[in-house]
Amino acid sequence: MSDLIPILLAACIAALLLLGIVDVFATAIPRRALACATACIAGGGMVLAMLAVAIALPATTLAVPIGPPGSALLLRLDALSGYCLTLLLLPGTALLTQAAARAELPALPSMLLAGLSWAVLAGDGLTLALGFCVVGIALWRSAEVAGPQPVFVIVAGLSLMVAWRLGELPSASAWSSVVRLILAWIGGGLCLRLVPLPWWPAFGRPELPRSAAAILAALLPVVGVYMVVRLAPEAGFPADASIWGGALVLIGSVACVWCALTSEQAMALDEAVALAVARPSGMCLIALGMGGIADSADMPSVAIGFRAALLALLAGQSICGTLAVLGARAAIDSAGSRRIDRMGGLLNQTPVMSATLAIGLLGLVAIPPTIGFFGAWALVQAIVVAPRTGAAWPDGLLLVASVALAVSAALALGGAVRLCATALLGRPRTPRGSAAEDIARGEWPALAGLALCATLLGLFPNAMTWFGSAATAASGTASPAVRIDDPMGFATSIALLLVLGLAIPILRVSRRGEETGPPTTVWSGGFSPPPAWLPFGDPVTQTGGLGFVPTLPVVSWRTWFSASIPFRRWLLLGAMVALLGIAGLFG
Amino acid sequence: MATLLALFGQFLHIGMIGLAVWLFACERAWLAAVMAERTPAPFVQPWRDIMKAMRKRRLPVENESPLFRLAPIVAVACSATAVVLIPGYALELLSAPIADGILILGLLAFGRIALILGVVDTGSASGADGAHRAMTLATMTGAVGMLVVIALAMVTGTTNLDRMIGLLRDSGVGPSEAIPFVLAALAVVACVDLFGADDRLEAAFAGRDWVLVRIDTELRLVGWVNLLGGLCLPWTVSDTHADPIAQGLAAIGWLVRSAACVAVLSLVAGYIGKARRRQLAQILGVAGLGAVLSMALTLLSGGAT
Lengths: 587, 305
Known about the structure:
The complex is a heterodimer of chains A (587) and B (305). By secondary structure, chain A is mainly alpha-helical. Chain A has helices at 4-25, 31-54, 79-101, 107-121, 125-141, 143-146, 149-168, 174-191, 210-235, 241-265, 269-296, 300-335, 346-349, 351-364, 371-385, 392-424, 431-434, 444-459, 461-474, 486-489, 491-511, 557-560, 566-585; strands spanning 60-64, 73-77. Among the domains of chain A are: 240-482, no CATH class; 556-587, no CATH class. In chain A, helix 9 (210-235) runs parallel beside helix 11, helix 10 (241-265) runs antiparallel to helix 11 and helix 14 runs antiparallel to helix 16. The model of chain A is unreliable at 477-484 (pLDDT under 50). Chain B has one domain (2-50, 62-300). Chain B has helices at 2-35, 45-55, 66-85, 101-120, 125-156, 161-170, 178-195, 199-203, 207-232, 244-274, 277-300; strands spanning 90-91, 238-239. In chain B, helix 2 (45-55) packs antiparallel against helix 9 (207-232). Chain B is globular. At the A-B interface, helix 15, helix 16, helix 21 and helix 23 of A face helix 3, helix 4, helix 5, helix 9 and helix 11 of B.
């Protein structure tokens, strides 16, 4: 059985790739049939990957008799790669099902999915590079809509391949270990959309199919994290583990805050959502860095906490990110604009699309009861229970990570509320927006399935941690099991039951015997109601998405030290003394 | 037997929350009038207003959606759940194992967000303006609140509030110099969350919806007072398995402690309510700095793990 799973999985991925190629050239075959076939194959692959994790499949290597003369391509399946494949193929199946319902050409999404799955299954550098090449070529075919993404993907694949090859050298010097680690980080960072941060396009242009956009935004980061995990522990941290792990934590902290801050300032829906989807990547880097430091210090119980958080964060990013991207693209298509201040009132016209976007965003910003909340919770738990040395460098990392988590969580929450409030609520601002069409009924099951997964995994996190425990063990930690404290494993579900248990009686009591009068204009603070010739209301009186979240203060020293505002002067003095105090305490 | 005691304690806790919601609303209104040097209205006037609003005919707002109707209900349900989870007069209640600080913050945030989204959905300028201010404050208090919870968790080694209070009461964990900073930061977050919000958010609702929003505000007040009282004066908190006299004394003590806390908060409310957004940001910035300082102190001392 354990020998059969890798063979069947490889066959599924090959079939996905083949169907993608057939779809490009054999135009006579009905699109819907091809899309259905790809969705079924992806679903089969997902079941196999889940099986591999559930039975804690020992690492199995499969030699595929193709490749350069004298060598074969190697595929390696273990619990960790099975977990990542599950996270790729679960949303992937939903995306392909959705493509089938829309009678969309499944070539691009199926090739992207096949390439990424192949890269995850890779057992050597060449196989890995081939997987990324498939992704790059598939995107290159759509270069006019994909922007510079093919270049980034191919550079990522090449750097990861070189990193892998360097690890296979018989006598690795300290410098080659350093180069290997840096290459792995560059490759992983490109997949995580954190390198080069400002130049990553949102999801390509609006012409890029929704499913392909979702794969690039939400599923590519899963592969990036997998690659960093797979390549880094084998190399080990070359010199002082705390320096390299600390660098990852610092990069992750900056990325978290930067993504949240720019997301809440972006006026284009796709940009804002892409940045919100990228924020958990920063949290993953924090978990990776801290886990690496704990591993090097021989503290497996601490490392396993960070790894459990990492697995939950990845699940949240892939599932909720896919939902958010699909919702955002559907909103852009139906409202005919990327700008959130040109949308508005979409909830009434497009409830399913709005729910998709809202659930995805709330999951990404860690609002209970979604899996995103559990990921953030697990990361905080791991930080809280991490042992302290009393020294400035490793302990300062805990401080930096905590501050970054808190600030980025609040900013991301503000950004998500701003997006939902401006784009989905209020009155429509344009005729196109007032006639927006909802997602077709055929696509509903796929979206409902993803939303259900996001919620159920958040409600019963122990199921996920049980599922991921084999993967955690495979990711380099000796301790085999991850289990969240039993009561907390059900805390979110109990809290949700309590909320529902209270909301239903309140609803009944508050509506009993209530008299209803004629509809009236809402009190507009002295403004008159909009005239009849403004059918969408006065756009000026509606929120345009600005002012929901605090802007960063611009420090003007002249203003700060102005004698007219002594309060600020004292505040600044207090802050400086406190900072000096912290610095002094850390020696 | 222990479960039965915990169950009894839980029901008593819920009953006392109900009493506190009623009592503190009246106390707050009375103190506000006294501090403004006005003749106070009868003590129970806030509840008369609420009963009056309950009988009012509902005037549906143009363009209102189910979200607008459901928002106050969701807000009250979330706040009530959060308040029930926060330990009150006694520890080791039935809800103790799931009284997680981060979960409670999440529930409070969800309730506030539901209200904000409901108001924005009407499309009115005034409501959206109030929502902007409320969301800005929620973002800032959320960030500092999360910092405070992490700092407290670092001091005590757990994010469970029940265990946190128990540890503070029994063993005095963590570096003692870190605790005042984090508790001061918590008090600031509570004040800004309670009194910094704009009245325009409440004014968007009418009739029974307005009543629900008022109850939500009072529930949040009780929750913050519970949390502050429990963490600042942990020795006033009893256990469910303590003898009935001790529990009764703890329940009375809880009521007195909370009423005193509400009085202190009401004094601050005048200042916070008039403060501009930038001033509130500065106050919260100082509170955040306090939380970071307490984290640094905890980490430096080797902390409680």
